[in-house]
């Protein structure tokens, strides 16, 4: 194990640094070896004990890490629950996250971050078009905004982009994004933060997806970690009954860390969370590295642990107490949990029409985006920046213009509103609800359809306000 960031910083800066950082330590980075996570300072195996965190629900683009009041309200609850990680689905890359990231670090909590926004992500209806230089700019600007925090455990390049049997072709583009993010971090000399994919539990293709994202000769294109959204353990279930035992067998040879990026079936409520006893035991530790409960705040779909009362208070629900008790009663397995150090990368699944339609040859990165590798991503564009329908290369000089902050004539609005009212958003929603007929996990998919962030299921907002410098938006097509 390498010496962690904290100790090297302290040893370089010496005594005065330890005074200044007395309450503001950075956390040791989490590193990957074989199919497990490790604390880079102590060498201990790291199991994710987390919650999914999107206060306000999936259609609310409030960045919970951009508002210190929200963090002051929620971080003490995370600590009380015994968490070491939260997953955030959307951040605003124009905001300053320093205070919240520091507060989380002080509480020993890592962040797993989805780099997409509903409007800026790979689209199921036209994935090739949505994979464009403007989209990569938003992804890279989010990487810029978080790369320096040692408590970023990893990034998700996509969430549930494949959500039924008709859109496996999208994987090609998500994998291209994985490749581009990893190359970007190297080019910018950032820490190589792990990049993963969070998969919907689609029985027919989740394993194909796991192998696809972890196959091939290009190290950059392979994910570093795989998250499965899994709602198969309901109420007082068991390792056998839930199907966890089958998943253990299916993923036995997988070479990188896997964890449950969402779990917590609500067919039985209040949820007893007895799966915690299985997840953090030697029954599963050789293959799985913990997971994240869906979800912290109670929203319309009723998956919450707390009810948000306002800016400064929440009411804890019975699920909260049950989860806290289960975490307390189930410490991590001793030692290394029998992880696998030397499993081989996966074999690429072959193209099969109607079953697995991802291409093992990835598209090249849109050429304009290569400027970001040398210059950085430039001006971050925030959450209301639709890129899905901008096929091709951008005029990236727009991102490097000095913003005057003066008034905008909103010239580009006609274009952006036609984009967001495009019929593809609704065709995507309907393809999402088709998957609700999937028998094995109806709860999961009905939940997914109401909150999916992986692509433009949500297209309610009509962007009307653009930054001043964008009003002369040009394309190189
Ligand atoms: C989004 O959530 C924040 C707090 O989490 C809340 O203040 C705001 O009203 C919500 N906005 C919408 C549009 O629901
Ligand atoms: C330490 O972090 C907290 C947030 O957790 C912040 O309020 C405080 O100002 C920081 N202190 C220093 C000395 O940076
Ligand atoms: C990250 O930290 C380094 C060293 O402190 C600093 O030079 C750089 O500007 C920071 N990068 C970002 C994107 O904040
Ligand atoms: C795992 O690998 C072993 C040895 O290579 C092999 O026999 C077994 O079939 C594999 N299991 C799965 C589920 O792929
Ligand atoms: C770990 O694996 C070894 C060898 O396969 C086995 O003997 C041991 O019982 C396992 N330990 C646990 C805790 O599963
Ligand atoms: C990995 O692949 C090599 C070469 O194909 C093979 O010899 C080895 O047994 C494999 N390792 C495992 C753990 O399956
Ligand atoms: C995969 O991509 C390659 C290169 O772009 C292309 O030639 C090939 O036709 C694609 N295969 C399929 C099945 O789409
Ligand atoms: C790109 O934008 C810059 C600055 O607005 C402009 O000077 C240049 O002509 C544009 N290039 C193309 C190919 O549109």
UniProtKB/TrEMBL annotation:
It holds the Pfam family Glyco_hydro_72. Its main location: other. GO terms for molecular function: 1,3-beta-glucanosyltransferase activity. It is a lipid-anchor; GPI-anchor. InterPro entries: GH (IPR017853), Glucanosyltransferase (IPR004886). It comes from the Eukaryota. Residues 408-451 are annotated as: Disordered. Its EC number is 2.4.1.-. Keywords: Cell wall biogenesis/degradation, Disulfide bond, Glycoprotein, GPI-anchor, Lipoprotein, Membrane, Signal, Transferase. GO terms for biological process: fungal-type cell wall (1->3)-beta-D-glucan biosynthetic process; fungal-type cell wall organization. Residues 1-22 form the signal peptide. SUPFAM superfamilies: (Trans)glycosidases. GO terms for cellular component: fungal-type cell wall; plasma membrane; side of membrane. The keyword Membrane applies. It is found in: Cell envelope; Cell membrane; Membrane. Belongs to the glycosyl hydrolase 72 family. Splits internally a 1,3-beta-glucan molecule and transfers the newly generated reducing end (the donor) to the non-reducing end of another 1,3-beta-glucan molecule (the acceptor) forming a 1,3-beta linkage, resulting in the elongation of 1,3-beta-glucan chains in the cell wall. This is 1,3-beta-glucanosyltransferase.
